[in-house]
Amino acid sequence: MSDPVRAHIAQAAWSLVRRAESWRTGRRPLLAHGPLFGVPAGARGPDAPRPVALTVDDGPDPRWTPRLLDVLDAHGVRATFFVVGERAARHPDLLRRILAAGHTIGNHTHSHPQPFAALPPALIREEIRRTQRVVADETGFTPALFRAPAGGWSRTVLGAAREQELTSVDWSVDPKDWRSPPVARIVRTVLSARRGDIVLCHDGGGDRSRTVAALDTALGRLRRDGTVFTVL
């Protein structure tokens, strides 16, 4: 069996784990050394409700990231941006704007290769290392979080992140906005977020006008309902 085939099988398996974890919100993770699928309990006190974490992948993008930042600011929501290193290197001003607005930045590899888990171990480590350097050199901020492209996890990927002192982060709510579904569908999925969920959205990799519009609607409703958001 070739490495790409094994990687695709592994990615499908992680999709099943992701679904199982999303049903177990508030419990211990199934995999002790796997990625985070929910906001860690206890960050706001043992009896406080866990907030929701909005995460944004694949940017920064000069067209969509500023629009999304405006929407987040309008609703008083802070998010975690998992940036692609080669895009970050082209738009360092957006990295600085993200941090200045109170958001945080995570590592989403340098070139977003897929299937990520099929890469040689040395290349996996270098993809992570290069983005760490780009963000640190341009902002002085060193990411502490890592997300594999398309959730392409494996022991090697998780180990490479740990070697660089990064916490791996997955998600539990996915509107699949990268496919550009109707705005109403993205809204419905984001509105399904409950305490402790990690929501996945995108500001890069294509036309993200529907994501921006959907989050403007969904975040407004969630905030009116008392949902609290946090960066990871």
From TrEMBL:
GO molecular function annotation: hydrolase activity, acting on carbon-nitrogen (but not peptide) bonds
SUPFAM superfamilies for the chain: Glycoside hydrolase/deacetylase
Any Gene Ontology biological process: carbohydrate metabolic process
Domain of life the protein comes from: Bacteria
A Pfam family: Polysacc_deac_1
Domain NodB homology: 50-230
CDD domains (alphabetical): CE4_NodB_like_6s_7s
Cited InterPro entries: Glyco_hydro/deAcase_b/a-brl, NODB_dom, Polysacc_deacetylase_ArnD
Protein name per UniProt: Peptidoglycan/xylan/chitin deacetylase, PgdA/CDA1 family
Lineage of source species: Bacteria, Bacillati, Actinomycetota, Actinomycetes, Kitasatosporales
